[in-house]
C-alpha cells in the first residue's frame, strides 16, 4: 500500500490553493510585478511591536486561557458596546486569526449534509472548510456587480440550509454591503432560521464612509468575525476574534481547547495596544491607490469600483478564453495576478491587489491595459 493511499478522502477533495500556485510560479520569476499578495505592504506599527516585545521580555510566553486574555476581551467588548450598544449576553472569543474563527464556527454549526449559502465570488476558505466538515456549499451568483440580491439568496434556501456567509468588505471584489442589503439579509435569515456568519476582517479598511455591519440587525443569530491582520499589518501574527450568541461562542471556545488551544500569547497582549492604534494614514493611502487603479483600468476593463479592502476583480477582456488563460499571459509578462476561478465557480475575472508600491501599480496597470488591447 502506497503512502498516498493513507490520505483521507476529505483531504483529497480539497485542491491546493490557486493563490499558492501563483506564488510558486512567481518564485521562478526574476523581480516580478506582484499584484497578487493579499496582505498590507506596511509593517506592524511600532507601538504594537513594542507591546509584543514587552510581553516576550515579561515572560508572557505560555498558554493563555482558551478564550483569550481578559484585557483583550474586555477591550473588544468595550469597543463593540460603544459601536452597537448592548451585546445582549454575547461573548467574545479570541481566535487564531479570522480563518481560525471561521473553522471553529463551521465545526460548531455543521452536521454532514448541512448546506451553507455562499455569495459568489467568495474567499477561498469558505468552500473548502465547509466540505472538509461534510457540509455542502451552495453558491449564489452576484455577478455582474457583486451586489447581494435577496431573491437569488432565497431561491437557494432548502430544508438543509443552516448558514449564510456574508463578507464585507469582500475578498476578492472589495464590495462593501449596504445597510439595506445587510438588513434584508438579516430578515431573510430570521424567516428561514439561518445563522449568519459575518466575516469583517477588512472592516477598518473602508474608503467611502463607515463600514456597515450585518451584526447590528440580528445579533441573536449572527457570529461576527474580525481580526487585526489586514488593518495592523499583522497577518503572520494570527490574531482575530469572534462575538455572537453566547451558546455558540461557548461551543467554539470548547472546540478551541482541542484544536488551536489559544491564540498566540504575546500577540494577544499586542492586540490590546492594536485596538487603540490609529491607521488613518494607511487607510488614506489605500484609498488613494484604489482611486489610481480604478482610473487606470476603467477604460480598459469592465470593473466595479471597490469600497474597501485592497482588491479589484475585473472581467477578463475579449480575446482570452477565460481568467486562467489571461493570468498565464500576465505571468509571461512578469506580472503576478490571481485567476478568478480561485474565488468563484466562474472563470471570467481575475483578482489584483493594490497593497503594493506605486511603481508596481503603475507598471502593472500599464501591462494589463496593453493586454486588454489584444483582440
Count the beta strands. Answer: 12
Largest sheet descriptor: 7 strands, mixed
**What's the gyration radius in Å?**
21 Å
Would you tell me the structural class of the helices and strands? alpha/beta
Estimated share of beta-strand residues: 5-15%
Which strands sit side by side, in order, in the main sheet?
2-8-7-6-5-3-4
Global morphology: globular
Question: Which stretches are low in confidence, meaning pLDDT under 50 for 5 or more residues running?
Answer: none
Summarize this, please?
With 375 residues, this protein is α/β, with parallel strands linked by helices. Helix content is 40%, strand content 14%. Helix 5 packs parallel to helix 6 and helix 5 (97-109) packs across helix 10 (246-257).
Description:
Helix 5 packs across helix 10 (246-257). The protein is globular. It has helices spanning 9-12, 18-26, 46-57, 70-84, 97-109, 124-132, 150-155, 179-192, 229-232, 246-257, 265-274, 280-297, 323-332, 358-372; strands at residues 33-34, 91-95, 115-120, 136-141, 161-167, 195-199, 222-227, 240-244, 311-312, 335-336, 338-339, 350-353. It has two domains: 3-43 and 279-372, Aspartate Aminotransferase, domain 1, CATH 3.90.1150; 61-274, Aspartate Aminotransferase, domain 2, CATH 3.40.640. The chain has 375 residues and is of the alpha/beta class. 40% of the residues lie in helices and 14% in strands. The model has no long low-confidence stretch (mean pLDDT 93). The chain has a seven-stranded mixed beta sheet with strand order 2-8-7-6-5-3-4, with helices on both faces. The protein has a three-stranded antiparallel beta sheet with strand order 9-12-11.
Amino acid at each position: 500500500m502506497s503512502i498516498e493511499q493513507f490520505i483521507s478522502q476529505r483531504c483529497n477533495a480539497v485542491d491546493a490553493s490557486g493563490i499558492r500556485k501563483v506564488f510558486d510560479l512567481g518564485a521562478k520569476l526574476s523581480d516580478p510585478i506582484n499584484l497578487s499578495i493579499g496582505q498590507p505592504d506596511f509593517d506592524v506599527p511600532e507601538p504594537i511591536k513594542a507591546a509584543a516585545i514587552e510581553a516576550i521580555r515579561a515572560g508572557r510566553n505560555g498558554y493563555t486561557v482558551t478564550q483569550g486574555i481578559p484585557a483583550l476581551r474586555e477591550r473588544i467588548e468595550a469597543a463593540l458596546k460603544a459601536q452597537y450598544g448592548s451585546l445582549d449576553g454575547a461573548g467574545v472569543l479570541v481566535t487564531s486569526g479570522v480563518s481560525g474563527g471561521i473553522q471553529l464556527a463551521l465545526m460548531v454549526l455543521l452536521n454532514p449534509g448541512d448546506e451553507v449559502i455562499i455569495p459568489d465570488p467568495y474567499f477561498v476558505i469558505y468552500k473548502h472548510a465547509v466540505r472538509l466538515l461534510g457540509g455542502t456549499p451552495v453558491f449564489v451568483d452576484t455577478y455582474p456587480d457583486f451586489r447581494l440580491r435577496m431573491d437569488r439568496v432565497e431561491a437557494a434556501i432548502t430544508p438543509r440550509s443552516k448558514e449564510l456567509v456574508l463578507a464585507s468588505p469582500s475578498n476578492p471584489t472589495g464590495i462593501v454591503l449596504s445597510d439595506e442589503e445587510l438588513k434584508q439579509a438579516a430578515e431573510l435569515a430570521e424567516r428561514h432560521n439561518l445563522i449568519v456568519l459575518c466575516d469583517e476582517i477588512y472592516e477598518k479598511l473602508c474608503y467611502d464612509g463607515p463600514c456597515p455591519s450585518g451584526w447590528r440587525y440580528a445579533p441573536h443569530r449572527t457570529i461576527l468575525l474580525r481580526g487585526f491582520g489586514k488593518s495592523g499589518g499583522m497577518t503572520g501574527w494570527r490574531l482575530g476574534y469572534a462575538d455572537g450568541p453566547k451558546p455558540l461562542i461557548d461551543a467554539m471556545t470548547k472546540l478551541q481547547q482541542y484544536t488551536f488551544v489559544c491564540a498566540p500569547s504575546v500577540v494577544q497582549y499586542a492586540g490590546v495596544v492594536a485596538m487603540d492604534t490609529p491607521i488613518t494614514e494607511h487607510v488614506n493611502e489605500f484609498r488613494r491607490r484604489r482611486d489610481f487603479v480604478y482610473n487606470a483600468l476603467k477604460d480598459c476593463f469592465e470593473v466595479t469600483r471597490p469600497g474597501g479592502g485592497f482588491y479589484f476583480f475585473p472581467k477578463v477582456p475579449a480575446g482570452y478564453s477565460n481568467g486562467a488563460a489571461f493570468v498565464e499571459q500576465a505571468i509571461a509578462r512578469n506580472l503576478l495576478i490571481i485567476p478568478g476561478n480561485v474565488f468563484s465557480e466562474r472563470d471570467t475575472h481575475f483578482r489584483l491587489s493594490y497593497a503594493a508600491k506605486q511603481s508596481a501599480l503603475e507598471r502593472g496597470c500599464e501591462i494589463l491595459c496593453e493586454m486588454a488591447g489584444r483582440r
